[in-house]
Design a protein that fits this description.
Layout lengths: L2 E2 H4 L9 E3 L4 E3 L3 E5 L3 E6 L8 E8 L2 E10 L4 H20 L6 H22 L8 E2 L1 E7 L2 E7 L3 E6 L2 E5 L5 H7 L5 H4 L7 E2 L10 E6 L5 E5 L1 H4 L4 H10 L3 H12 L7 E7 L1
Parallel strand pairs: 1-13
Antiparallel strand pairs: 2-3, 3-4, 4-5, 5-16, 6-7, 7-8, 7-9, 9-10, 10-14, 11-12, 11-15, 15-16
Length: 272
């Protein structure tokens, strides 16, 4: 469960699924799965009573758009916020992205989608939904490059040769402590304040953009904190290096997280 800094201020076979054949999606209240040629994603309820995570894998004319979002807020508002974020992202790219669009134009579109999602969530944050928000990490993948847009503490990882070659930086209180040298990296994952985030769509807007080169056999991983707060990054890298396909990697990461996580778990993997 995510906590805004400003507001502070099992198994697969056991689940009954509905299937959307047109988009190759399996979903119910506990479990969502999206399958494409190069990317695979699963969102699992994990240790929570409801799933406030949402995921997206969208095939564009010459690219992939990937995203995970982790909602925050009571009365099921978190799942509303995360769904608004992903739906808005999908809408913006389906409406405005054109084949061959420049990297600068893609970055502008990513920022626009995050900003529009922020405004829509704020507009809908009334009554029992007051204070709702969500993280959102988005990856645009095309021609050996990825552009990442990140708000909050869901993450994107670039894994290469069994190691983490790059990752996004969390918008979190603990990350700020790390940046100031007040705690060490190994302390951050278990820190009692690790759930306090400093940026979230619908709460306090901010987005960081990254550009990473993709080499042959690289793996791009997006996850909510139900994975990376509970499974050591070394173990994540090991599982990724052993996986032969995006689907195998996702399933093994979910299976690794479920016995130890105290949250929802969402993982999206892109592999050439």
């Amino acid at each position: 469960m995510r906590i805004s800094f400003n507001l502070l201020s099992e198994k697969f076979g056991d689940l009954i699924r509905k299937r959307d054949v047109t988009q190759n999606i399996e979903l119910d209240g506990e479990y969502r799965e999206i399958k494409t040629d190069n990317a695979h994603g699963i969102s699992h309820i994990g240790a929570r009573n409801n799933n406030e995570d949402t995921l997206l894998i969208l095939k564009l004319p010459d690219a992939y758009l990937l995203a995970v979002a982790d909602g925050l807020g009571g009365h099921n508002a978190g799942e509303v916020a995360s769904q608004i974020a992903v739906d808005t992202l999908k809408e913006v790219f389906e409406r405005e992205y054109t084949k061959g669009m420049s990297e600068g134009e893609v970055k502008t579109l990513l920022r626009k989608a995050h900003e529009l999602a922020h405004r829509r969530i704020k507009e809908n944050a009334v009554g029992e939904r007051e204070g709702m928000g969500t993280t959102l990490v988005t990856a645009f993948v095309r021609d050996g490059k990825t552009i990442i847009a990140n708000t909050g503490d869901s993450r994107a990882y670039l894994l290469r040769g069994g190691k983490i070659a790059a990752k996004t930086k969390d918008h979190s209180f603990v990350q700020e402590m790390l940046d100031r040298g007040e705690i060490m990296e190994e302390e951050a994952r278990r820190h009692p304040l690790r759930n306090i985030i400093t940026k979230a769509l619908g709460i306090d807007f901010g987005v960081d953009l990254y550009g990473w080169e993709l080499r042959e056999r690289d793996v791009l991983l997006l996850s909510t904190d139900g994975l990376h707060d509970y499974v050591d990054e070394g173990r994540i890298a090991e599982i990724v290096s052993q996986g032969k396909s995006s689907e195998e990697i996702v399933r093994r990461l979910i299976e690794e997280a479920l016995p130890v996580t105290k949250d929802n778990v969402t993982v999206v993997v892109w592999k050439e």
